[in-house]
Each structure stands twice: as structure tokens, then as C-alpha cells.
Specification:
- This protein is an alpha/beta fold.
- It has helices at 44-57, 73-80, 83-89, 98-108, 125-138, 151-155, and strands at residues 4-14, 18-28, 31-42, 65-70, 112-117, 143-144.
- A six-stranded mixed β-sheet has the order 5-4-1-2-3-6.
- The radius of gyration is 15 Å and the shape is globular.
- The chain starts with a strand and ends in a 5-residue tail after the last helix.
Length: 160
């Protein structure tokens, strides 16, 4: 039996780069779980993508029907428009966040994932809550190091 899971995600960076965090709300039937974490130095796009990865890692079953609501065009379009598949074919040459994209591929491969873009800071209660969680996490005293973030690489690459 496939489980249906709805996931809302958001990422935040206070300064870009700067302190950052992600927020997640997961809902399945009567179950609801909120997850968040902050980081010392990161970017908004990394937090948006990390939120999706962490949410998928928290799924207890394989082959779930997962609908992810995100206000990140970067994340949603990269998957939905096939950019990620092309980046895989080219070995992620010249692409930021390849460490996270590789993690996303690994955690999503056993799930049926569909992305839906939502307008940020609008009328979506799940997105609003995730934004609150992400900002609270970024402002917390419990900040981790984003070991995959490298400002020297990020500042010296050419991008689309």
C-alpha cells in the first residue's frame, strides 16, 4: 500500500550568503511533523534544496506518493523541467550545489515525488509555517556548519 505524504518546505538565508535555515512541515493522514535547522553560513538555494532532502530522508516507507510544495523556482523547475537530468548527464559541470543535488537524487529514487510551486509569503499556510520555522532556525543559537558550502567556488563559477 502506497502512503500519501504532503510536504511543505522553505529555506532562508539572512544575507545571501549568511546565516540560514530550513523549515519543513510533513503531513500524512492524521500525522504531522515539523522539522527545522539553522546553519552558520549558507545560501538561500542551499537551504531550499536541503529542506527537500531532509524531508525525504524522514519518510519511513519507500514508494510513497509525495507531493512537495515549495516556493523555490530553483528547486521546482530544476526537477520538473528536466534540468537536473541534464546536469547529471554533464556531471554537474559548472553547477552550484552539486553535492546537494546528488543527495536529492539518492533520497528521492525510491519515492514517487511530485513538485508543486507555491507563491512565497502568500496565502499558503504550509509555506507560511515553513518560512517561520526556517527564519527561527537561522536566528537560533543551535547553528551547524554547512560543510558543502564553499564561497570561493560559488563566487568564481559562471552560471545560467
Amino acid at each position: 500500500m502506497a502512503h500519501d505524504v504532503t510536504i511543505y518546505t522553505d529555506g532562508s538565508a539572512l544575507g545571501n550568503p549568511g546565516k540560514g535555515g530550513y523549515g519543513i512541515v510533513m503531513v500524512s493522514g492524521k500525522y504531522r511533523k515539523e522539522i527545522s535547522q539553522g546553519y552558520i553560513l549558507t545560501t538561500n538555494n542551499r537551504m531550499e534544496l536541503l529542506a527537500v532532502i531532509v524531508a525525504l530522508k524522514h519518510l519511513k516507507y519507500k514508494k510513497c506518493n509525495v507531493t512537495i510544495y515549495s516556493d523555490s523556482k530553483y528547486v521546482v523547475d530544476s526537477v520538473s523541467k528536466g534540468w537536473l537530468a541534464n546536469w547529471c548527464r554533464t556531471g554537474f559541470r559548472g553547477k552550484k550545489n552539486s553535492d546537494l543535488w546528488r543527495r536529492f537524487i539518492e533520497v528521492s529514487k525510491d519515492q514517487n515525488v511530485e513538485f508543486k510551486w507555491v507563491k512565497g509569503h502568500a496565502d499558503n499556510p504550509g509555506n507560511i509555517r515553513c518560512d517561520q520555522l526556517a527564519v527561527e532556525a537561522a536566528n537560533s543559537d543551535n547553528l551547524l556548519e554547512d560543510k558543502g558550502y564553499n564561497p570561493e567556488i560559488e563566487n568564481n563559477m559562471n552560471f545560467e
